[in-house]
Design the sequence.
């Protein structure tokens, strides 16, 4: 086998070994099974009413690609009947933390004791290293740190700096 073919074969084998465990097949019918980690993440993100209207809102993540990069969060807010997508990026290596297992990266709880949950998120990091917050985010949302909190107040989703 020519040397280039050996390299291609080796690279394909490495890719399949790395990516195969990441692939999750789900069926929608009642006979499906979902691995426990996937189910924990799903449960943690369900049953959240951020706007207090009694209807559960949805949290969605969009992956931009790459080994550790990057996820953006969107929230479907029932009282507004729309999805709000934020530009903040969360390190892809930590998305597993959206199941409640890494509260230093991502956590949902009632921080201000108003009876509604807020979302804490660590943004602009790569492989655990913090990077400067983009100036456009500071201008638009007023944030200056890598630790932010999403709160909902009077039909508006607010974003603010938060130090745990």
Sequence:
């Amino acid at each position: 086998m020519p040397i280039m073919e050996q390299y291609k074969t080796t690279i394909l084998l490495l890719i399949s070994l790395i990516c195969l465990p990441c692939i999750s097949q789900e069926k929608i019918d009642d006979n499906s099974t979902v691995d426990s980690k996937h189910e924990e993440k799903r449960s943690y993100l369900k049953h959240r009413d951020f706007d207090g209207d009694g209807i559960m809102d949805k949290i969605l993540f969009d992956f931009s690609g790459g080994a550790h990069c990057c996820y953006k969060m969107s929230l479907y807010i029932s009282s507004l009947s729309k999805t709000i997508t934020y530009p903040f990026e969360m390190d892809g290596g930590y998305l597993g933390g959206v199941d409640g297992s890494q509260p230093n990266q991502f956590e949902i709880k009632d921080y201000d004791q108003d009876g509604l949950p807020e979302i804490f998120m660590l943004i602009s990091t790569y492989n655990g290293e913090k990077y400067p917050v983009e100036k456009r985010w500071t201008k638009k949302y007023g944030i200056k740190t890598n630790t932010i909190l999403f709160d909902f107040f009077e039909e508006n989703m607010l974003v603010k700096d938060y130090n745990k």
